[in-house]
Amino acid sequence: MENTATENEVLSRTVTITPEQLRSHWQEHRSLSRRMIEAFPENEIYTFSIGGMRNYADLTMEMIDLAGAGVKGIATGDWSGYGDSGQQGHSAAPTTKQELLALWDSVTEKIETYWPQIAPERFQERDNAFGMYEGPIHGTLLYLIDNEIHHRGQGYVYLRALGVEPPAFWDRNMG
């Protein structure tokens, strides 16, 4: 028997996640990533690395730049802003951990501001994110989340190497 299900029939049988659930999922990850930044000793966040990887402040700046410019691009189609003022594809990090946390918080607020502007059908549209990735918006958003998880994983290794207990990887509570 040949399978002749239409795309709409297939979609009607799939599990869906609402835009609000997806926003909440992303913000929960961001909450855990913020606790990772807080856990770093001030004197190590800008200098410590293993095996030639970037320090955690640089990794954090990549996450900040991608999330901030990414949510704007997803909402508006304007992908400018990623690393406009820095090197290695991202902005230069502030000079203190508190400034880094403040910048992280400003991007969290930016997500809350832009998210309501994203029409649900936008997630299925294709766009050229940052002039580098041509694909569906939902794929771009998942990349932003995956990239953050990847760099947070590097932070876990760094903190363990420094003898610092990192936050529990499974605890994404925002409170």
From TrEMBL:
Binding site residues for a divalent metal cation: 151
Keyword Metal-binding: yes
Highest taxon of source: Bacteria
Matches recorded under Gene3D superfamilies: dinb family like domain
A matching Pfam family: DinB
Keyword tags: Metal-binding
One MF term in the entry's GO annotations: metal ion binding
Family stated for the protein in its record: Belongs to the DinB family.
Name listed for the protein in its UniProt record: Damage-inducible protein DinB
